[in-house]
Amino acid sequence: MGSSRLPVLGMLVWVLHFVLMRPEVTMYILVYVDDIILVSSSVAATNRLVLALSSDFAVKDLGKLHYFLGLEVTYPQDGLALSQQKYSQDLLRRAGMLECKAATTPMSSTETISATDGTLLSADGATDYRSLVGALQYLTITRPDISYAVNRVCQYLHAPREPHLTAVKRILRYAIHGDIFVFFGPNLIAWSARKQATVSRSSTEAEYKAVADATAELIWVVDAILTY
């Protein structure tokens, strides 16, 4: 048994986790408030545990996991995929940056930031800064490409200044990209990260647009392979 604190949208939440490892079964359980995620190598063991819990608590089996603490889960043929599309949209909305212009990189290659340059943020501004940085830390679960930039802005949590906030906003502007990856077997042959041309009113609409863009890219790649 253990516990973890996760900075979900800048708020620290406690998640309890339990691990059972025996020769016949391996089981992992995550508990957050009244939500439970159960991963097990044995369907029979899973059913026995759910039945045992039902004898003491009101338990409802919701089937396969689809959403938990900002993580969206889908099930392609070869496993499962995690994304944080809705989480990133909520983060941009909270920062008032839904209409912002996208950045092509998470950090500037020409500008540097330090602990002493620029004006100190106000007390409220510093609180907002720490909250945004904490939320970005959680976003690195599915966006490892922003890990270095997030680590840099984490270094100024004790006394954030205007240039540090500008750097955080650049990371957010980069995070709005819609990423497309095309594989030929195990090899990545095409990749794109760009802002969608129109503003989506929901994460579902944004996902449909991303699928359409990916389909167009895939058609072009297939045509290029067949041609050459």
What does this structure look like?
- There is one protein chain.
- The protein has about 230 residues and is an alpha+beta fold.
- It has three domains: about 1-65, no CATH class; about 85-175, no CATH class; about 180-225, no CATH class.
- The chain is about 40% helix and about 25% strand.
- The protein contains six helices and nine strands; from the N terminus they run ββββαβββααααββα.
- The strands form three sheets. A four-stranded antiparallel β-sheet has the order 1-2-3-4. A three-stranded antiparallel β-sheet has the order 5-6-7.
- Strand 6 (about 70-75) and strand 7 (about 80-85) form a beta hairpin.
- Helix 3 runs parallel beside helix 5.
- The longest helix is centred in the last third of the chain and has 25 residues, at about 205-225.
- The N and C termini lie far apart (about 55 Å).
Features:
228 residues, alpha+beta, four-stranded antiparallel β-sheet, three-stranded antiparallel β-sheet, 6 helices, 9 strands, 25% strand
Structural class of the helices, strands and pairings? alpha+beta
Q: What is the number of helical segments per DSSP (H or I, 4+ residues)? A: 6
Q: How many runs of DSSP E, i.e. beta strands?
A: 9
Q: Helices and strands, in N-to-C order?
A: EEEEHEEEHHHHEEH
Q: In angstroms, what separates the terminal alpha carbons?
A: 56 Å
- Major beta-sheet overview: 4 strands, antiparallel
- Low-pLDDT segments: none
The overall pLDDT, averaged over residues, is 81
Beta-strand content: 25-35%
Biggest sheet: strands side by side, in what order?
1-2-3-4
Which overall shape is indicated by the principal axes computed on the Cα atoms? globular
Estimate nothing, just give the exact number of structural domains.
3
- Residues in helices, as a percent range: 25-40%
Instruction: Give the C-alpha Rg.
Output: 21 Å
